[in-house]
Amino acid sequence: MVYHGRPSKDCLPCRRRKLRCDLDPSGCSQCRRAKLACHGYRDLKDLAFRDETRSVTKKAMLRHNLVTLTAVPQPDWTSLSRDAFLSLYIDRYSRGFDALGPLLTTSPSSGYLYASVDAVSLAFMAYQVNHPDLITQAKSRYLAAIRSLRTAIPHSDHPANDSRSSISNAFLQSVLLLDLYEKIDRHRYDTSPNFPSSWLSHVFGALAMIRERPSTEFSDPIIRELASRTVFALTISCDLAFHVNTPKWAFINLLSAIVNLRADIRAATCNSDAILLRAQELNKRLALAESKIPSSWKPHKKNSDSSMAFGGYYDHYPDHFATQVFNAFRLMRLNMNSIVQGISPRRSTAEEIVNVTQDICASIPQLQCYGTLTPLYAAAQITTAPHTRNWILQTLTYMADNGVEMARQVHHILTSAPETDYWVVFAMLGSCGITA
Fold first, then answer.
1. Eight-state DSSP code of residue 316
2. 84 and 232 inside one domain
């Protein structure tokens, strides 16, 4: 029992108004003058002591369990994922969605464009931070975007000069984002070399929308950007002759030429001499194009004694995108040199493979991220140097132990099925979306 001192005799209105009560038994005169109902006076004997047992017990338990009882705020993963996707992938990494920003500013937050952004953002975050629980949320937003797009289909074909053209552009952008979602999410449920039906469904839908646009609408820079993105998404989404080996994709230049060469090899439509000449020519064009990359993008060599630095050094690039561009060229050059070496082994080809492989290894220590897995796989697959392959396997293990979970799967493929085509690994990783 805790003593709280002598309580006031005053009536409740006087106590609240902090007035001196005259304690008139018939009713407080202060209340009468203020025309207030006087509630009478309290029994001071009942108020002298209070039972504080429950309060004291509660306070003691709170002090004892302060750490365990403190509520941990739960993050808003949708907002966090959207911010990370827009700032890291859209603004810095991809540079392939320049139309997204202007379209978001004119789109309702409850519409299909925001639902598409949220779906791909949550999938992006799930694999960046190895948080599988976010996949369920991503799937929910993906289905919401699909439903919203289906509802909007009759309203998506307004002319570009109409005030409603932004709806049509936003619709096409949403379809391309859903294609990106499919690429990121695919390896969660299917790591086979066969492409699922959904692999191309969104791209073909986007192409159909592009075909429906009158040529006059392509004066709109946003439409040109979306059309270019659609063509690029199709080109990197498939490695099949009947999809890409047609004259209309010739303008895609090096990328389509390489895909077409691989398609011809797979279909056995060319003899080895013709394949050799085409691979050598493409390798020269790749090397020439790589040499023309702006000097501001090129890396600076840094010496290091770390075991993570292959050969005692690593390359420091100005940003993530520059690393991605250089490794894309190296990946294709390794592919062309592998074809040449398989037909006509030469010392010069072997030396170029060594140099390109070393450049890929030198690009890893700075980032050690998801987007470097395919170049690492290709380098390990083609190298004949045991120490290079061992370093790559050790690097993949290190990356897997430090949050890049897919590095473990790449390591498994290299050790159990090293003959697996790098395009299969590229697709398994969702890299068609992640690095595009």
1. E
2. yes
Which residue in the block uniquely carries the two structure tokens 């009713």?
Answer: 27
- What is the rounded distance in angstroms from the CA atom of residue 15 to the CA atom of residue 40? 12
pLDDT reported for residue 249: 41
For residues 97 and 221, membership in a common domain is answered with yes
In sequence order, the 6+-apart residues with CB closer than 8 A to the CB of 166 are 103, 106, 107
**413 and 325 fall within a common domain:** yes
Q: Is the dihedral of CA 297, 301, 302, 307 positive or negative?
A: positive
Q: Chunked in runs of 10, what are the mean pLDDT values of the chain (436 residues)?
A: 68 84 83 83 70 74 59 76 85 76 89 93 85 88 92 58 57 91 71 58 86 83 85 66 39 71 86 92 88 86 88 88 85 92 88 93 79 88 92 91 84 90 76 47
pTM here is 0.54
Q: What is the pLDDT of residue 245?
A: 43
Is residue 264, in this structure, part of any structural domain at all?
Answer: no
Residue 229 contacts residue 209 (beta carbons within 8 Å): no
Asked if residue 297 lies in contact with residue 318, where contact means CB atoms within 8 angstroms, the answer is yes
Domain of residue 26 covers 2-67
Same domain, yes or no: 26 and 137 = no
DSSP state of 315: E
Q: How many domains does one find in the chain?
A: 3
The string of DSSP codes covering 93-142 is II---TTHHHHHHTS-TTSHHHHHHHHHHHHHHHHHTT-THHHHHHHHHH
Would you say residue 18 lies in a domain? yes
Same domain, yes or no, for 303 and 421? Answer: yes
CB atoms within 10 A of CB 258: 24
The C-alpha angle 174, 321, 336, rounded to 5 degrees, equals 100
- Looking at the structure, do residues 200 and 294 belong to the same domain, yes or no? no
